[in-house]
TrEMBL record:
Cellular localization per UniProt: Cell inner membrane
The organism's place on the tree of life at top rank: Bacteria
Native source organism of the sequence: Lysobacter spongiicola DSM 21749
Protein name per its UniProtKB record: UDP-2,3-diacylglucosamine hydrolase
Gene name of the record: lpxH
Gene Ontology MF: a single term: manganese ion binding
Coiled coil: none
Length: 251
């Protein structure tokens, strides 16, 4: 049997082809899987479970259908959808995992993260993250009218793009927005595991590294901006592959 991992879909109404690809993936490959793990940024933005968007409704119904067909779904918050709450999770039939979490795959522990906490070189983002994860900030933000929250999300996206453009202009984009090696090493040492799966950086790859004399593996999931990306884990190992938009996922 196969366990599936995806992240960074960034679903919204502006990219319906990717939403359709995700729906097809859920109806076809994900059915019959041992489990599906979504490691953050399922949505481009999420400002509260009262958002009546068609994309949100489609995703909730599609995930609920998958769960009812027998495949459990677990979700971990990302930097774009950290406000997704238990109301939406119940609609979708999925559970919410803390970041980080350890799961057991084929008898071996594996660490799961969204990945943004590993990017410690991006000080501005880490400060924003600390602010927006504060329970008091969340309570105050969610008490605002939906229109005000949607406006904030648009402003935050514009600020993020400006921040990235500034880093590109300074020639620091590749290093600042990627994981910090020290943070990765400390994470492996802290948990004592040899496999880490995360997303966030949009740099799909399998990295082999030595940590305290142990051979470790860091698997980075790809984004779904232009195509899909899925990690399949079975008794034969880890298989990171792309899904082309407009085609069915591989069986």
């Amino acid at each position: 049997m196969t366990t599936l991992f995806i992240s960074d879909l960034h679903l919204d109404a502006e990219r319906p082809t990717i939403t359709e690809l995700f729906g097809r993936f859920l109806r076809e490959e994900a059915r019959g899987a041992d489990a599906l793990y979504i490691l953050g940024d399922l949505f481009e933005a999420w400002v509260g479970d009262d958002d009546p968007s068609d994309t949100g409704a489609f995703v909730a119904d599609a995930l609920r259908a998958l769960v009812e067909a027998g495949t459990p779904v677990a979700f971990m918050h990302g930097n774009r959808d950290f406000l997704l709450g238990q109301d939406f999770a119940r609609r979708a039939g999925m559970s919410i995992l803390p970041d980080p979490s350890v799961v057991v795959l084929h008898g071996k522990p594996v660490l799961l993260m969204h990945g943004d906490t590993l990017c410690t070189g991006d000080v501005a983002y880490q400060q924003f993250r600390t602010q927006t994860r504060d329970p008091a900030w969340r309570k105050q933000f969610l008490s605002q009218p939906l229109a005000a929250r949607l406006a904030f999300a648009r402003q935050a996206r514009a600020a993020s793009m400006a921040h990235q453009q500034g880093l590109q202009g300074e020639g620091r984009m590749e290093t600042i927005t990627d994981v910090a090696p020290d943070a990765v090493g400390q994470t492996f040492s802290r948990f004592g595991i040899d496999t880490l799966i995360h997303g966030h950086t949009h740099r799909p790859a399998v990295h082999e590294l030595d940590v305290d004399g142990r051979q470790c593996r860091r698997i980075v999931l790809g984004d779904w901006y232009e195509q899909g990306s899925v990690l399949r884990v079975d008794e034969k190992g880890f298989h990171l592959e792309s899904l082309a938009a407009g085609t069915s996922p591989a069986p």
